[in-house]
Amino acid sequence: MFEPSARRRQGSLGGARFGRSGPSLGIDRIRCDGRGYCAELLPELIRLDDWGYPIVSSGPVPDHLLEHARRAVATCPLLAIRLAADGRSR
Amino acid sequence: MSLLSLLDGPDLRGGAEPVTSHLARLGPSLLSGAALIDALEQSDLRGRGGAGFPVGRKWRSVAARPGPRVVIANGAEGEPLSFKDRLLMQARPHLVLDGALLAAGAVKADQIILYIGREHSAAASAMLHALAERPARERRRIRISRPPVAYISGEETAAVQFINRGVALPLTVPPRPFEAGVGGRPTLVQNVESLATAALIGRRGGTWYRSSGTLLVTVTGAVTRPGVIETWLGTTVAEVVERAGGRAASIQALLLGGYFGGWVAADDVWELPLHPERLRATGHALGCGVVAPLPVDRCGVAETARIVSYLAGQSAGQCGPCVFGLEAIAETLRRIAMGLSRPDDLARLDRWGAELPGRGACRHPDGGAGLVRSALSVFADDFAHHQERRGCTAARPLAVGAA
């Protein structure tokens, strides 16, 4: 596994910018308690605001980050983050 | 043709229009069911609760879901500057009932809930009285629900949750109410002015609305005769302010759309059209139709601090970004307004204003963030003055005896 900050430097947000199709990340804002694991596991797409709540890049998750995204989803202790096919959930 | 459509009929001061007068004046709807949905789509009527979603598309979405279905007539009107929904319910309750019944017919709903803010007692009693004038076959499908006094009570998932569980707080979407609402059934949540307008479109058609449709606007703040005004779509801000008796003072800016809307500088505002799509094209939002001029001797920074403090206090308290973000913005604005700003305050307001939207279950944080972004641009000089001079540009010596 990459060291997270190294992955961040690779600038892999490109997938979201070029409008590829694929699942995107959504946060259940009522469930989310700002534990921050998601941003640790997927810094390319998730950063935290001043109070520790996630700010998620919009758009589909690039293929090469899907595995990391799934891990972030599985690790959330509040089950507040999901990978949705149609990206409807925020 | 008279300018009045929604508020046409007997003198508004006479209270609610009785059913006999309503029927004699308007007759039955000519369109119903799928034909009415077609007419609504043709009319391009947008929801008048604030979000401005196309009404025809909303009805079609609910109608397309498997039944049974429910209609909520949304008269929560939690926006402190808006008075148009309660006035409409008080004065023309049968037009609202017509719209709700037509909606129920069109989306094939067997249940209608009149959702009326607990503070709007005159509106609720007018609606109840009107209901009693209706035949039993209509009455038995309709019930009334009174949400608590709160800004977010009228948010559509909050309405659904209040009716289901007695808790008027927003829910995570999806599912949206059109998918699963009251009792898990597909639910149409529609503002009462939108429903009343649909009832008129049922009589006059979609093309009538496109050419001669009206909307209700609450004109408040520094005008001579604040109140609710019915006017044609596309009327300019200058015209409605004129109709409200004109400016009561020199105006520096105008709050458009309510607390959920934004500030517009006086220089840019007068020719803006009160029309959902045309206004959106100029980068502004009609919201629930509030037009509120701010006089030059009031501080835009302090005014924004007051509104955002209110919005922060009205957060449902469910989502972290809303709870902490709005309160932080409010606190920072209060600090700047009092001349106690810190060096990075403006930069932080800027960043929070950009980070907050889209990060709540509902759009409450988006509203506060949008207002702050507009304030930072419209009152840029005032913010700078507060920061550099630790004082307020609006402070003026008061004339002797002035309030």
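The two ends of chain B are 43 Å apart (CA to CA).
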